[in-house]
Amino acid sequence: ITRLLEEETLDARRTAILKFGGPLLHGLSDPGPGFKEWREKQQDRLTARLAAAAVIVLEADTRYGISSTEGLRTLCDRAVSIDPQNRQLRIAVAKAFARTGNHDRSERALTEDGFSARDPEAASLVRRISASRAHASVITRLVDETMRTKIPRVALLKPRSNCDTTSARPANHSGAARS
After folding, report:
1. Phi and psi (nearest 5°) for 143?
2. pLDDT tens string 154-168
3. Alpha-carbon separation of residue 97 from 49, 76, 128, 157, 176 (angstroms)
4. Radius of gyration of the chain (CA)
5. Is the separation of the CB atoms in 24 and 47 below 8 Å?
6. What is the pLDDT of residues 63-122, one digit of tens each?
């Protein structure tokens, strides 16, 4: 995972997140003095780097449509498992789900374990998600009502006889006459 994080590419970061399987450096032991403290510092440092990488990957994948719905779900679940109390990571997961229209998962990412009750920004984001969901349902209802009207769809596509239909032809950029 450390080697992948050093590459600093989205693919390497995504792979590192997906390879995460539990506490970093877990099971590594040495009876020497100071080893436990060293391991805990390294564990904290690597966890912070992996969490930061997850925030970057979630933003990029959902902003630019790289991740599939199932891929996003797996990535988000793995990201939260890196550090469940990491505020930036939880908010990034919620925003990723919201950007892809999964408002229920977005809200759940913030409300699980009472997270939004402890974090004002998370609570504000939950309110915005709820408002967005309400707005989306109003738009959906309006579209459904519009589609149920008696206007034939063909009439909407048929040009009027008094319209100039020649303007719909492709532009001639070469200057030569078209046949």
Report:
1. -65, -45
2. 544 555 555 555 545
3. 22, 9, 13, 36, 52
4. 26
5. yes
6. 877 667 778 888 888 888 888 888 899 889 988 988 888 888 888 888 887 777 888 888
CA distances from 147 to 48, 72, 134, 155, 168 (A): 50, 32, 20, 13, 26
CB atoms near residue 16 (< 10 Å)? 24
- Distance between CA atoms of 122 and 59, rounded to whole angstroms? 17
Give the single-character DSSP code of 160: P
Total length of the chain: 179
Pair of tokens at residue 23: 């506490």
179 secondary structure, DSSP code:
-
pLDDT attached to residue 9? 82
Confidence (pTM): 0.62
